[in-house]
Every structure is written in C-alpha cells, then in structure tokens.
Amino acid sequence: MRKLTSDELRELYLKFFAERGHAIIPSASLIPENDPTVLFTTAGMHPLVPYLMGEKHPAGKRLVNVQKCVRTDDIDEVGDASHCTFFEMLGNWSLGDYFKRESIAWSWEFLTGEKWLGIPKEKLFFTCFAGDADAPRDMVAHDRWVEMGADPSHIYFLEKKYNWWGPAGMTGPCGPDTEIFYDTGKPACSPGCDPSCSCGKYLEIWNNVFMEYNKLGEGKFEPLSQKNVDTGMGLDRTIATLQGAQSVFDTDAYVPIIAKIEELSGKNHKESAQTVKAFRIVADHVRCAAFMLGDPRGVAPSNSDQGYILRRLIRRAIRYAMQLGMPQDSLKSVAEAVVARYGKVYPELEQNRAKITEELSREEARFQRTLKNGMREFERVKESLAGGTIDGVTAFHLYDTYGFPIEFTQEMAAENGLRVDVKGFEEAFAEHQKKSQAGAEQRFKGGLADTGEATARLHSATHLLQAALRNVLGEGVHQKGSNITAERLRFDFSFERKMTDAEVAQVERLVNEAIAADAEITCTEMSVEEARAAGAMGLFGDKYGERVKVYAMGNFSKEICGGPHASRTGELGTFKIKKEEASSAGVRRIKAVLE
Questions:
Q1: Which end of the chain is more exposed for a tag (fewer CB within 10 A), N or C?
Q2: Strand ranges for 309-431 from DSSP E
Q3: Are 462 and 587 in contact, with CB atoms under 8 Å apart?
C-alpha cells in the first residue's frame, strides 16, 4: 500500500481520471449558488445538480475534481477518529455516459493497482443495494465486484437506509449505490458485525452512486432517461488509511495544525482522552472556520444561516481552547497554521488571510463578553434555586443562550455543591432538535436545486438585480451569495452602508425597465478568457473550468452561470424589492419578489 501525502493523493486521483477522459473541473464555493436547500456545499454533486438532471456541462460528460465540503450534522461526533466538519471530497462523474461496470472497474483499479493506491484487496469490503418494492437487488454491482477480483464474502447487501442515494420525501434523480470500506483491523464487535456497524472495524472511503431512477410524487419511481454516476471519496479518511494513521487527525493534513495548538497550550495532545478530544475539536473547527471565512463568496459570523453555523463552530473551538489553557485570541494563530498548510492548494485562503484572522479575533472577543454574561446568569440561577439541583430546562437555557455546554454547567455546579438534571437537559435538547429539524424540512421542502419555471424566472432576475446594483452603487458591488425559491429571491452583495430609499427605487426601476424590454436570454459556451474579454460578470480565478456558460440579457446583463433561466426577460413579471438590510460586515442583503 502506497504511503501518500494529502497533496499526492489529490494529484494522483485527478491524474487517474483525466487519463480516462475526465475533464478536471475546479472546486465550487462552499456557499451554494442559487440553491435554497442547503446552507453549505455538503457533497461534490451539489454544484452539478443541473447537469445531473440533464443540462449540458461545458466540460463534457466525464468530470473529476476535488470539492471543498462542509457538513455539521455530526458536529457532536467531531473528536472521534474520523468525523470532520470541513472535508475534501474526491469525485468523478458520468453525465449520461458510462455506468456501473466502468465505474466499479475504475474504482477497483485505483484502489488496488500498484501504480495507484495499492491497497491489498483482502482489506476491502463492499455493500450493495438489497432491493425492495421500488427497485431490484443490485446484482450488476455485486457481480462486477466479483469479476474485478473482490472476495464474494466481502460483499454485503444492505437495505435502502444504507445503500440508496436520495433524501426521503424528495423528488428527483436517485438510485442505488455501492460503498467501499477498509478493514481497519479492529476486532469485530459481534458475529454479525458488517460495514453498517459503527464499531470502527470498517471505515467507509468511497461511495459510487448510480442515479438511474426519478422519484415521483406518492413514492413512485420511473427509470431516468439519462443515467448518471456520482462518486465521492473522502480525502481525510483515505489518507489516514494510506498513512496507517490512528485517526484523520494523525495525518499530514492535521499534524502542523495540532502542533500549533500544542505550542499555544503547552500540552501534549495525547496527554489524556479529554485532551485528545479538545485538540481535535479546536483543530477541526478552526480549519472549517478558516475555509468559510476565506471562501470567495464570503461568510462572516452572524445569527442566521451560514453565519450562525460559522459562529457556532468558532465559539465551540473557543470553549475547548479554554479547556486546554490556550491564551485569549489564540484561534487566529491556529488559523495561520491552516492557511500555511492549505494556501498553495486553495489560494483564496492566502488571499483572505487578513479577513480570516480579524474575524476570528473579533468573534473571540465578542464571545468572551457573552461568557461573562453567562457567568452572571449562572450566579442568578444559583441564588434563585430552592433546592440543590439545576433543572434541565435551565441548563439548556444556559447552553442555548450563553453557549455553555452541559459539561461546563456541571463543572460550575459541582464547584458550588449543586447537581444538574442531565436527563432533563437531554430532553430539552432533543425537543429543540426536533423543532429545528421540522423547521428545516419545511423550509427546504421544495427539493434540491429546484429548476421549475418560477425559480428560473427569479434566478434570471438576480442577474438583472446585480447589474442594476452595479449601475446605481458602483462597480465595487459583487455578489456574495444568493438563495432562491419558487416564491422569492434573496441576494447578498458587497456594500458598506445601508442603501437610501432613492437608490432602492432606482434599482427597482432599472430591473423593471430591463424586463419591459423583453430581451432574449441567450446562452453561449466559451472559454474563461473569452468570457472575461466579453465583459461577463463572474468570480474569475480558480472557480471555473476551461469552458463556461455565459448568459446575456440584451445589453443589460452578461454573467457566467449554470443555473436555470427564463427564455426572455419579458416573462419575469414585475420586480419588487421587499427589504434591504445588513447581512454581515460589509455585506448587504436584498429580498425581492416577482409579482
């Protein structure tokens, strides 16, 4: 098995698939463009949804890249051997080209070939879809693995819960997948232990999704006219496997970051189980925060959406940094180590170094004040107690409002001879999660990357809005994010002050004049250089592949984009700005509708 560095694995993966006819495309932003269903890019497929649904990609039918991703569903798991909030996903796609047999053959070759990763085949295990009333057992995938040389006893059939891509309740492309696991050598937890078990014996490193169905309403499925392959290999987990590391935090990706935390704290990170967890959380959360802050589309700590997640990560890192005895304002130094480690691969980190460190310092100072308020609240709670126990609802209030983890509250209670109703806290926390999840499901029920007519019109309107804003406010205005549903658009842009009523009215008038002109909305494929020369708006640099789509709306707007659009501006209706407000430092937000 080859012992590669993280940088070597990235390069080798891209080389392998480029040699097999895949166009190398750059990582998209961590902030999804025109997708209201997710706050962050959580998988390599998110930026490619329109193309998975049939739209032509400028680079062709075979694609490969390394995508920056953020997932916070498992934030409480961070601190174990494999969970990270930020991660890099190595992915290759077939957009209606090759399918299961080629995908599995190439996965096998890359994993086991001596020229590539050289993983012993006896260390690999596989899962395939077991079949149900919606789709048959995936014997094609099973038989192909056997043909390639996999041990049949290493292949398991699992139910839809484990081997099917497509969130429950949503419509659109979906299908069975086959997942690849590495046997870590840990003993099985029971005779029935298989790759679905979470005991740690099997580590998932690659997932090949075969999108061959379209999920309709009422739980019905029909075959897709365009069958796609969407794969994802986690770089951190794979490199840990290749380097024989005990965890992803023991790889070359994290070693310099961990070393910086040791320097700042004066502790050995493997001093105790508690220390190991704290080091990992600080390292992971600061790495993730640095990538969020350094992203070209821009995120800053706030109390909503992406900014809320960023703030939660930073504050959680601060709490664990305090546990380690790190000096105040230490996170910016940890972030410097992140930039030093990843700046060559992701130059936006180097370009935004000042923003990253300044925002971390500002948020750390702000949280110190919050902690002081929380301490005062704890004293108030202590004085008002009738008995010797802090009830669960109060403990949750300290957590939710002041950022006190239950361990923090327990520690302070013990120092004062008090107890904490931990079970009551867990019940209050579970109820909060239930409400939050229900709210998220309601908010995002429209489905991933909606390409319906109403959404396409609003998406087209964002192009006109950006052009109008630059006309009225100046060319320093740039898009910093957008969120579009079938009912409204939300557009974030760089601007330092509140717009005047006159400016808002002028922007609204210009957009409606462009709509009244009923200009044809045209799409032209061209190189990035040609798009730049033509005056198309776009975040140039490393965001785009060699060829892009440029949408023009008369002489009013010309912009690089991959989303859904109307045919003519006259289809849009009447544009109305409902609100102009601050989004974060130096970023304003407009909410608008088409009437």
A1: C
A2: 389-390, 419-420
A3: no
pLDDT per residue, tens digit, the chain (595 aa), is 889 999 999 999 999 999 999 999 999 999 887 666 678 888 888 788 788 878 899 999 999 999 999 988 777 778 787 788 999 999 999 999 999 999 999 999 999 999 999 999 999 999 999 999 889 999 999 999 999 999 999 999 999 999 998 754 467 778 999 999 999 999 999 988 999 998 889 999 999 999 988 888 677 888 888 899 999 999 999 999 999 998 999 999 999 999 999 999 999 988 898 899 999 999 999 999 999 999 988 788 887 788 888 988 998 899 889 889 999 999 999 999 999 999 999 999 999 999 999 999 999 988 877 777 888 888 999 988 878 899 999 999 888 777 776 777 887 888 889 999 999 999 998 887 776 555 444 433 333 345 678 888 898 999 999 999 999 999 888 888 788 877 889 998 989 899 999 999 999 999 999 999 999 999 888 888 888 888 888 754 445 567 788 899 988 999 888 777 888 999 898 999 999 998 877 889 999 999 8
Q: How far apart are CA 318 and CA 370, in angstroms?
A: 12
Distances in Å between the alpha carbon of 242 and those of 2, 31, 569? 6, 30, 53
Question: What tokens were used for 466?
Answer: 């950006």
Long-range contacts of 351-355 (CB under 8 A, 24+ apart): 351/294, 352/293, 352/294, 352/295, 353/294, 355/293, 355/294
What tokens does 553 get?
Answer: 């709306």
Q: What are the DSSP calls for 180-225, one per residue? A: EEEE-SPPPSSTT--TT--SSSEEEEEEEEEEEEEE-GGG-EEEEE
Q: Give the residues across from 65 on adjacent strands.
A: 91
CB-based contacts of 465, cutoff 8 Å, min separation 6: 489, 491, 507, 511, 575, 590, 592
Residue-wise over 246-284: b if at least 16 C-beta within 10 A, else e? ebbbbbebbeebbebbbebbebebeeeeebbbbbbbbbb
Tokens of 28: 């998209």
Token digits of residue 26: 């750059």
Nearest of 74, 97, 96 to residue 85 by alpha carbon: 74
Count Cα neighbours of 468 within 13 Å in the Cβ-side half-sphere.
23
230 phi and psi, to 5 degrees?
-135, 110
Q: CB neighbours (10 Å) of residue 33?
A: 23
Q: Which two tokens stand for residue 182?
A: 């590495």
CB distance 126 to 156 below 8 Å: yes
- Sign of the dihedral through C-alpha 401, 402, 404, 409: negative
Angle 547-552-554 from CA coordinates, rounded to 5°: 160
* 103 CA to centre of own chain: 24
Residue 420 to residue 409: CA distance in whole angstroms: 8
